[in-house]
Amino acid sequence: MKIAIDGPAGAGKSTLARRLAEKLNYIYIDTGAMYRALTWEALRKEININNATIMAELARTTDIHFMINSSQRVICNGIDITEQIRTPEVTLAVSQVAAHREVRELMVSKQQQMAQAVSVVMDGRDIGECVMPDADYKFYITASIKERTRRRAAELKANGYEASEQNISKEIQDRDYNDTHRTTGALKVLKDSIIIDTSNLTIDEALNTLLEIIER
After folding, report:
1. CA 185-187-189 angle, 5° bins
2. Helices 203-215 + 13-24 axis angle, to 10
């Protein structure tokens, strides 16, 4: 079975996708982490992330994969960068990297190869439309700007970063605009999307909602 989970930043889709995969004993693939890893590598090498040609070449030559220990780890060119890809610097730049057409085509190809697993849960922005159009379930996870801002602020604080909710809200809205208006792999609600609003749901409540739909 293939389960696609799309949605905007901060809606809880990655946490839900990971928990759902654990519950069903499926393979979990966090495609957003792949774009974050490429962004981290570009920033580390001081590459101009707005240069589509250079970024496409970087995507071709960078080895990004996942390793499962007690949790899923993100490996980039042999380096475990699981924590580094969640910094504010990477978060601010990742939408620009993901907007390049050739970068997305290369990443989607890699993700489709990963999706050949017998049972998989994959989350991102364009999973239901581009990566797994044949998915058995296509969930669209969303939440209000206010709630997504609150969650992001709490996440940053837990990781030792300080930021005003006003700035976080603007960053989220800017990212939403970029994600929904890019020419390739834009975030959108599909005709066969199952929309889940997590604004007033705990993770357990949202997870149970997904499980009930799948079991039904």
Report:
1. 120
2. 50
Q: Which domain holds residue 130?
A: 2-200
Query: Quick one: DSSP state of residue 118?
Result: S
Are residues 214 and 164 in contact, defined by beta-carbon separation less than 8 angstroms? no
At 86, which amino acid appears?
A: R
The number of domains in the chain is: 1
CA dihedral angle for residue 101, residue 11, residue 135, residue 125, rounded to 10 degrees? 0
Q: How far apart are CA 145 and CA 159, in angstroms?
A: 21
CATH code where residue 67 lies:
3.40.50.300
Residue 178 lies inside a defined structural domain of this protein: yes
pLDDT (tens digit per residue) in 103-158? 999 999 999 998 887 799 999 999 999 999 999 999 999 999 999 999 999 988 88
Report yes or no on 211 lying in a domain. no
Supply the pLDDT for residue 70.
Answer: 62
CA-nearest of 57, 82, 55 to 67 is: 82
Cα separation of 95 and 36, whole Å?
Answer: 9
Asked whether 34 and 110 are in contact (CB, 8 A), the reply is yes
Q: What backbone torsions phi and psi does residue 43 show, to the nearest 5 degrees?
A: -65, -40
Place of tokens 């890699």: 110
pTM greater than 0.85: yes
Residues of the chain with pLDDT under 70: 69-70
Is 149 domain-assigned?
yes
